[in-house]
Amino acid sequence: MAAALATIAPLALTACNRPAQPITDLMTADPDEWPSWGRTGSETHYSPLDEIDTDNVADLKLAWHYDLEPGYTASTPLMAEGKVFITTGHSHIRAFDAETGKLLWEYDGGTRERAKSALQMSWGSKGIAYNKGHVFLVTTDGYVVSLDAETGKEAWKVYDYPDDSPRNSNGAPRVFDGKVIVGFGGADISPARGFVTAYDENTGKKVWRFYTTPGDAVTPANKKAEEVMRKTWPSGWKNEDGTRRGGGGTAWNAFSYDPDLNMLYIGVGNGFPYNRDKRSPGGGDNLFLASVVAVDADTGQYKWHYQVCPGEQWDCTATTDMTLATLKIDGKERKVLMQAPKNGFFYVLDRKTGELLNQPGKIAKVTWADHIDMKTGRPVENPGIRYNGKPGMFEMWPGPTGAHSWMPQAYSPNTGLVYIPVLENGALIGEGQEGGGEITRGMGVTLIPEVDLPGGHRSFLKAWDPVKQAEVWKVELPGSWPGGVMTSAGGLVFEGQIDGKFVARDAKNGKELWSFKTVSPVVGAPITYRMNGKQYVTVITGAGGQGAGMQTIADAPYRTDYRLPRRVLTFTLDGKDTLPPFTYTEPTPPDDPTYKPDPKRSQAGFMVYAGNACLVCHGWNAVGGGAAPDLRYSPVITDADAFKAIVHGALKPNGMPPFPQISDKDLEDLRFYLRTRAQQAPAEKKAAMDKLKAAKASNAKPQDFAGKWNIVIQSPVGPQKAVLDLKVDGNVVTGTAKADQGDVDLTGAFKDGRIKIEGKASMPMPITIAYDLTVKDGELQGENSNGPFGTFPVTGTR
User: Fold this and answer.
1) Which among 512, 527, 621, 769 counts the fewest CB atoms within 10 Å?
2) Looking at residue 549, what is its pLDDT?
3) What pairs with residue 570 in β-bridges?
4) Residue 79 known to bind ligand
5) 480 near 458, Cβ under 8 Å?
6) Helix (H, G, I), strand (E, B) or coil at 186
7) 270 marked as binding residue
8) What pLDDT score does 686 carry?
9) Using alpha carbons only, what angle is made at residue 296 by residues 290 and 301, rounded to the nearest 5 degrees?
C-alpha cells in the first residue's frame, strides 16, 4: 500500500541525499552569517548550515535570551562579525554578542521626537541591513542611517523624502553592490508618487532614484520607464488644477538582487485611490502598480516588468518576497524569480526577461480571477469583479491582506519547495458611496476586510512545488496571521505562531519535530548562524504587522496581549538558559458604573475610530491584536481628561501618535464607543473561546467517511498517493488502502468525530499501518502511522 512508501522509499532514497534543485553559489555565500533580510540578495531565507537537522532538532535548547520593552517587535534579526543585530519599535537598534547575548551597544533612531504625523509613527521597522562593518536602517520618518557595527555610532545620515506627502518607511533596506536600497509606504492614504532610491553605502550620496508611477519630473533612471508607464495612464494622473489625482506604487518591502545579471528587482504596491475610475478615469493598466520591475543595479534604468494585477483596484500588491533560484523546468535550468503576491497566484518568471515560465497555481481561494493566460501573462478576471458603478458589495477572495502578506517565504534547493505563510481570508468590497464607511477617506471604495465568511479567518504553512505549480503539503496554523519562515540544509523549516509557539518542522512533510513555548506570539522570521563551529537559531517574539490592524478577530482567542513579554530568543543544541516563570493575568474591562447603552452614540464613536485609522494599531472593532494596547481593557477610557491628554499627544514619547485634530465632541463619542466595546468584551471572549473549542473538536458523522478517497501521505521522501475505500456500519469501519505497492485491509471504529483504522503489511518486515482521520470542510485530514518509521500528515478528497 502507499503507506509502505514511507518505510521502503526513505531507505532507498535518503542515502542519495541529492538536492531536488541546483544549489547556487549565491545561496551558500557566507554560510556562517545572516547579514540581510533574506540572508543573501537571492532572498531565499535559506541557510546552508546543517548541524541542527531532523535527527537532532528535538535536542534544541535555549542558549540565551534578552527581554525587550513593549513596542513593535515583528522584525527579523541579522548576524554578522560575531554580533546579532536587531531593530524594534521605531528604529531602536541593538547589538549583542552572538554567543552569549551580552548587549554591546544601542542606538535610538529618534523617530518619536521628530515624527510629524501618525503615519510616521505607525507600526515600526521590520528589518535592517549589514555590510562591510556597518549597519543600515531607515527610520519610519524617512532618515537613512549608516552605523558603525562595532560601536553603534552614526557614520552618515540622509533624509529620503522630497516633500511633505504622507509617507513612512518600515521595510528593511538592502545593501547590494555598494548601494543601499530603500523604499517607503503610504499608498493607502495618498496619491504620492512611489519611488526607490539607491544611496552610496560609504558616503550616503544619492546614486539614482527610480519612480514607479509617471510624473513631471523625469530622472535619468526613468527615461525609458516613463515611455512604458505613461501610455497606461491614458487620462493622465492630474486634476485640472494640477494637483495629483492618482499615484501610489510604493515599494516598501521587497527587493532582490542578481549580481550576475546586475539587476535589482523591485516589488511594487497598490494605487491610490483604490477605485481606478477616480485614479485614472480613462482606464488603463496603470503601470507600475502591482508589478515586479527589474532595473539596472548601477543606473536604476528600467529593464522589464511583470504586472500581477493590471488596472489594480483591490489593494493588490507585489510587495511580498521575490525569491531567486535556479530551477529545472522542462529539462532546462532556468534562472527564475518566484513570488506569491497578495492576489493568490504563485508566479515563476525568467529573471533576465520577465517571461512567465509556467502556469501559475493558486495558493489559496481566489475568486477575482479564474486563471492566468500563458500567452499574454494577464489574469482572466471573473465577471463582475470590478465594482465601479455597481450597487452594493460583493465577496472577494483573497481580501485586502492577501493570500500572502509581508511575512517572508523561504525556499530550499534540497527539497525544491517554497514554504509560504498563507492567509485564507475573504472580504466584502464595493464602490465607495458618500457615508459608505471608507476606512480611509478618498479611497473610492467601501471595504469590510474583517468579515466572517465560511472558510475564512484561517492560516497555513504551505509547501509549494514551483515547477509543478502544486501544493505538496500544508499545515493549518492557529489564528489568521502566520509567522515568517526560515529553512536550512538540515532539512528543517522554522516558523513562529500566533499561539506563542516557535516550531521546527520536517521540510519534506511538515511534521512537527520540535517546539518551544515562547509565551508571546511570533510573527517575525527567524534566522540561523554559526559561531566557532556551533549553529544557533534566533527569533524575536511579539505580535504585530497584522495588515493595518486587521486580522485581529480570528486571533482573539489566543494571547496576543500587548503586555506579554517580548524577547530575543537564541537556541543551540547544548543551550543551558531558561526563561523566568511568567504568570498571565487575564485582562478585565474597567469598572464603569455610570455607563448606559446608547447605540447612536456608539455608532458615532465607531465612525471616529474608523475615520481616524485607530484600527491601524488598536485592531478591527477595537479587538487588539498585540500591536498596541487593547483599549477595551484600558482604565483610561473611563477618565475623560486622561483620554483626551493621551489622544492629543501625552504619550508620544512612548510611541502613541498624537491626534490633535479630533474635536472634543468626537473624542467623547470615541471614548463612549470604547466603553461600549468594553462592556461587550467578556461575552465576545467567551464566544470566541467556545468557537475555538468547537473548531478543534470534530463534528463529523460516521457516514461522512464512507466511500473512496484519494489521499496523499506526506512521507519523508515527499507526497505518496493512495486510495482509501471505506465502508461504515454503525460505528464499525472497514476498508482497503490501495496503491501501486499493494493493498492493505483496514478495520477500526468511529468515535468522537474521528475514525481510527489499522491493518498489517509486510514490506519487507511485518508492520502495522494505522490511520487517525476526521473530515473537515469536505476534506479528509489526519495522520498515517507506519510502524517504527514514523507518523505522517494525511489529506484526502473524494
Assistant:
1) 512
2) 58
3) 64, 538
4) no
5) yes
6) coil
7) yes
8) 83
9) 70
Q: Which three cell numbers stand for residue 579?
A: 526563561
Asked if residue 338 lies in contact with residue 347, where contact means CB atoms within 8 angstroms, the answer is yes
Ranges of the chain whose pLDDT falls below 50 = 1-16, 435-439
Distance CA 562, CA 609 (A): 19
Which domains are delineated in the chain?
Answer: 1-31 (no CATH), 599-696 (1.10.760.10), 702-797 (2.40.128.120)
Give how far Cα 771 sits from Cα of 86, 701, 776, Å. 44, 17, 16
371 is in an annotated binding site: no
Consecutive H or E run containing 66:
strand 61-68
Residue 672, CB half-sphere, CA atoms under 13 Å: how many? 20
Active site residue 315: yes
Q: Does the annotation place 487 within a ligand binding site?
A: no
Prior bond to 764 cis, omega within 30?
yes
CA nearest to 426, candidates 404, 456, 446, 394 = 456
Tell me: is residue 41 an annotated ligand-binding position: no
How deeply is 580 buried, as exposed, middle or buried, from its count of CB atoms within 10 A (0-12, 13-18, 19+)? exposed
Q: Give residue 713's identity as a one-letter amino acid code.
A: I
Looking at residue 776, what is its pLDDT? 84
Q: Which amino acid is at 539?
A: V
Read out DSSP for 204-233? --EEEEEESS--S---GGGHHHHHHHHTTS
Q: Are 268 and 319 in contact (CB under 8 A)?
A: yes
Annotated catalytic residue: which of 315, 465, 669, 704?
315
Say if pTM beats, i.e. exceeds, 0.90: no
Cis peptide before 273 (omega within 30 of 0): yes
Q: Could you give the CA distance from residue 103 to residue 108 in angstroms, rounded to a whole number?
A: 14
Residue 187, annotated as binding a ligand? yes
